[in-house]
């Protein structure tokens, strides 16, 4: 399958999955904090627990993660990024993630903190603004 035939990425970047989050879910390194955040959203949307745990800072990561909770992620909006670029060692990404549950549609809004450790961006934690 060529990248032109690849489905659009769940992170809503507008790019094909094979050129966007696909390589990161396969083990590649994110070039920026925003790229990592988008790949983590995609991992949640696809139920890829390994990617979510692999990209979580070891000091704050849970020991186990269960993504079979009936949540279906349906949209992502990146509101703002501060630092987190290719030459930075830390950054934040403010986002809104829309999801559906058995009881309806909701939106998680968070400002997530990321650091680069040994060349890899990792999610540290976040401030939840609304759910």
Protein architecture, described:
- With 131 residues, the chain is α+β, with helices and mostly antiparallel strands.
- The protein has one domain (17-130): Nuclear Transport Factor 2, Chain: A (Roll), CATH 3.10.450.
- 18% of the residues lie in helices and 37% in strands.
- The chain has 3 helices and 4 strands.
- Strands 1-2-3-4 form a 4-stranded antiparallel sheet, with helices on one face.
- A hairpin with a 6-residue loop joins β1 and β2 (90-101).
- The longest helix is centred in the N-terminal third of the chain and has 14 residues, at 33-46.
- It is globular, with a radius of gyration of 14 Å.
- The relative contact order is 0.17.
- The mean pLDDT is 94.
- It comes from Miniimonas arenae.
- Belongs to the UPF0225 family.
């Amino acid at each position: 399958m060529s990248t032109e035939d690849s489905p659009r990425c769940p992170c809503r970047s507008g790019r094909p999955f094979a050129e966007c989050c696909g390589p990161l879910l396969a083990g590649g390194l994110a070039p920026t904090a925003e790229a990592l955040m988008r790949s983590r959203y995609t991992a949640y949307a696809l139920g890829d627990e390994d990617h979510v745990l692999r990209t979580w800072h070891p000091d704050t990561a849970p020991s186990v993660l269960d993504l079979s909770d009936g949540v279906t992620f349906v949209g992502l909006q990146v509101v703002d990024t501060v630092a987190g670029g290719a030459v930075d060692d830390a950054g934040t990404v403010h986002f809104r993630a829309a999801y559906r549950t058995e009881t309806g549609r909701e939106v998680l809004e968070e400002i997530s903190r990321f650091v680069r450790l040994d060349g890899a961006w990792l999610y540290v934690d976040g401030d939840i603004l609304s759910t």
